[in-house]
C-alpha cells in the first residue's frame, strides 16, 4: 500500500472534493443543499434569457460592442434582481413566517381567558410541534431554542399573547426589524379588535 501523496498549499483540490457555493443570500438546509423555503424570494436565482438582448458585431453600425454589452449587462442585472412574485408561487421564508405569526397571534387573541386543562394541553402541543414540523429548518431550530429558554405561557389569553409577542420580537431583533409593543391593548388592536378608528370595521 502506497502512502498518500503529500498535499501542497498551491495544489488544487479535485472537482469532486470541492463543494459548490450556494447562490448569494441562499440558506443551506440540513441536507447540505440550498434550502428554497429557508430563503427569501428576492434571493432566489432568476431565469434570465440573454438571447433576447442583441449585441451587434464589431463591424455593425451603432455603438461599440463594449457599450452595448455594458447596456445588456445592466438590463440583465435589472431583470435578474427584480422580484416578480406571482400569487401562485410557493411561499418563501418571509411569506411563510408572516403567515405563521399571523396564525399564532390570532389564535392567542381568541384563546380563552381561563382555558380548560385540555385546551392548555392542546396549545402546548401546537407550540411544541412547530419546531418538529416547520419547513424552514433554521427557523424551526431557533424557535425550539426560544421555547426551551422561555416555556410557553398557556395559562390564558393574556399570558399566551404576551409570550408570543416576546418570541416574535426576538426574531424581529435578529432581523433588524422594529419591535412591537407587547401591551395587551396593542396586541388586541392588531390581532383581534382592529384600530379604534374603525378603519377595519
From TrEMBL:
Q: Write down the Gene3D superfamilies for this protein, in alphabetical order.
A: ERV/ALR sulfhydryl oxidase domain
Identify the EC number(s): 1.8.3.2
Membrane-spanning ranges: none
Q: Name one GO molecular function term.
A: flavin adenine dinucleotide binding
Q: Which cofactor does it need?
A: FAD
Q: Which top EC class is given? A: oxidoreductase
Region listing for Disordered, in residue ranges = 1-29
Places the protein is found? Mitochondrion intermembrane space
- Report which reactions are catalysed by this protein: 2 R'C(R)SH + O2 = R'C(R)S-S(R)CR' + H2O2
Q: Name one GO cellular component term.
A: mitochondrial intermembrane space
ERV/ALR sulfhydryl oxidase domain location: 89-191
What protein is this chain from?
Sulfhydryl oxidase
Amino acid at each position: 500500500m502506497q502512502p498518500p501523496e503529500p498535499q501542497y498549499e498551491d495544489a488544487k483540490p479535485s472537482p469532486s472534493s470541492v463543494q459548490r457555493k450556494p447562490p448569494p443570500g441562499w440558506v443551506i438546509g440540513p441536507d447540505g443543499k440550498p434550502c428554497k423555503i429557508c430563503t427569501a424570494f428576492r434571493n432566489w436565482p432568476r431565469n434570465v434569457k440573454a438571447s433576447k438582448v442583441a449585441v451587434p458585431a464589431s463591424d455593425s453600425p451603432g455603438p461599440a460592442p463594449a457599450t452595448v454589452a455594458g447596456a445588456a449587462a445592466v438590463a440583465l442585472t435589472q431583470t435578474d434582481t427584480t422580484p416578480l412574485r406571482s400569487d401562485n408561487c410557493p411561499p418563501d421564508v418571509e411569506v411563510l413566517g408572516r403567515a405563521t405569526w399571523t396564525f399564532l397571534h390570532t389564535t392567542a387573541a381568541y384563546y380563552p381567558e381561563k382555558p380548560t386543562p385540555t385546551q392548555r394541553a392542546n396549545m402546548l402541543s401546537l407550540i411544541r410541534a412547530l419546531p418538529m414540523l416547520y419547513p424552514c429548518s433554521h427557523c424551526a431550530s431557533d424557535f425550539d431554542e426560544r421555547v426551551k429558554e422561555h416555556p410557553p405561557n398557556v395559562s390564558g389569553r393574556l399570558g399566551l399573547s404576551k409570550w408570543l409577542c416576546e418570541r416574535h420580537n426576538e426574531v424581529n431583533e435578529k432581523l433588524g426589524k422594529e419591535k412591537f409593543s407587547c401591551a395587551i391593548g396593542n396586541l388586541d388592536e392588531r390581532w383581534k379588535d382592529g384600530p379604534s378608528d374603525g378603519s377595519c370595521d
